[in-house]
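Key result, reporting period 2: structure in, sequence out.
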């Protein structure tokens, strides 16, 4: 019994460690260092750099949104979830390492590599998140999900601390060798700390559901066309899972706003409030601390009061964050707002993953997480930044653009109030199995 308990803890820790590993990519290559490197160094500060960067992010997100559900279904029916996760992780690590060879004027080279790296990172999350209901019981999914995001923010803090000496001189041409080395360190960090999950976790080879379902899995498990048909069925019959459908729609809107805040936080701080590169590093490292705290604390809150109520609480916190950011006129006030944003960011994402795990039918867990992480999650990452950019350009104010995100949070809050958190298995008989 003790041995089984130790083994279970080791499996959970390896899962948590992957979040520690991959968030290093997110904070360095998507949120902070590489976007500024792409604009200031690769595009040599030209205005078109913003458009090229936005296009690179949007293309990568769009591709992940299109392929995630199909690959998720394929992983479910082939029993090779770990192989898919390994392939996506390897793509991200290699492409990130190759970005250390990018330099001034190498726009196409850098854009293609970033698109590949981000597809590897975002696509891998589909298979990673789908392991949550398998490694823990329903009673502790909120806690474990919270631990995962906490570990992720700890990883972000760690990679910023490691690269601090390399980034301290700023994102400027004179510092190019150090910046390139920092990207190589990210790739190494990602590779080393993601390795344990591939050793500790195993694919579930057996059938899920009845024996006939298992027989069909063995017969058609390797059929990619069957996966496409399966996704088509899921799309056509998604309303058979009304609570899951409502949650995904709510998640689409409020996650849209959250991802936009993340994507534009450094640009907003630098352009509107005049943050220097050094101040931005300190700001992001500080935000990680409250994100860790929020993920852990609200993980326990989620298990106590349920993920739906936790999400509602965090959305009200986000309202406060947006309003405070709009009203803030100093760096000090914005830093305090960032601390609150960090707490709500970790908690809302952890609670969302917990609710998704609770509402998802087990026999299609990877496929449905493909919709959660892929179609809905990544599509929102395309629309939110686009709206922010258009409003900012038309009105000439990033504060007004920030205010527009309140609409997305409001829609998410209104829709999620209609979600019932009972088990998906209680849905219609037709919904209990996709065949």
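The corresponding designed sequence is given below.
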């Amino acid at each position: 019994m003790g041995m089984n308990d130790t083994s279970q803890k080791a499996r959970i820790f390896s899962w948590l460690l992957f979040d520690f590993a991959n968030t290093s990519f997110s904070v360095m290559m998507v949120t902070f260092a590489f976007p500024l490197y792409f604009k200031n160094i690769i595009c040599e500060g030209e205005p078109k750099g913003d458009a090229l960067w936005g296009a690179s992010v949007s293309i990568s997100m769009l591709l992940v949104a299109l392929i995630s559900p199909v690959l998720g279904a394929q992983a479910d029916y082939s029993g090779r979830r770990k192989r898919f996760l390994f392939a996506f992780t390897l793509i991200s690590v290699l492409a990130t390492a190759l970005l250390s060879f990018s330099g001034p004027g190498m726009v196409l080279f850098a854009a293609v590599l970033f698109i590949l790296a981000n597809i590897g990172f975002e696509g891998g999350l589909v298979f990673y998140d789908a392991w949550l209901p398998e490694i823990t019981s329903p009673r502790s999914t909120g806690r474990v999900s919270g631990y995962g995001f906490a570990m992720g923010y700890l990883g972000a803090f760690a990679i910023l601390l490691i690269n601090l000496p390399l980034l301290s001189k700023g994102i400027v041409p004179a510092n190019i060798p150090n910046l390139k080395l920092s990207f190589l360190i990210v790739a190494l960090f990602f590779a080393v700390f993601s390795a344990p999950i591939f050793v500790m976790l195993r694919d579930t080879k057996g059938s899920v559901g009845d024996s006939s379902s298992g027989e069909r899995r063995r017969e058609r498990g390797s059929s990619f066309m069957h996966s496409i048909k399966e996704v088509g069925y899921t799309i056509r019959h998604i309303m058979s899972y009304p609570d899951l459908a409502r949650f995904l729609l709510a998640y689409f809107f409020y996650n849209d706003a959250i991802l936009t805040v993340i994507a534009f936080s450094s640009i907003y701080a630098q352009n509107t409030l005049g943050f220097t590169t050094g101040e931005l590093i300190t700001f992001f490292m500080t935000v990680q601390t409250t994100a860790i705290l929020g993920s852990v604390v609200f993980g326990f809150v989620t298990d106590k009061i349920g993920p739906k109520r936790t999400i509602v609480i965090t959305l009200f916190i986000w309202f406060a964050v947006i309003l405070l950011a709009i009203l803030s006129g100093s760096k000090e006030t914005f830093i305090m707002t960032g601390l609150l944003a960090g707490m709500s960011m970790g908690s809302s994402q952890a609670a969302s993953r917990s609710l998704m795990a609770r509402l998802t039918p087990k026999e299609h867990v990877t496929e449905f997480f493909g919709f959660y992480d892929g179609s809905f999650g990544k599509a929102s990452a395309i629309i939110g930044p686009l709206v922010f950019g258009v409003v900012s350009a038309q009105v000439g104010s990033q504060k007004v653009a920030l205010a527009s995100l309140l609409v997305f949070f409001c829609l998410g809050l209104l829709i999620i109030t209609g979600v019932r958190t009972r088990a998906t298995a209680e849905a219609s008989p037709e919904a209990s199995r996709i065949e």
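The longest helix spans residues 48-78. The chain has 17 helices and no strands. This case is discussed further under Risks and Mitigation.
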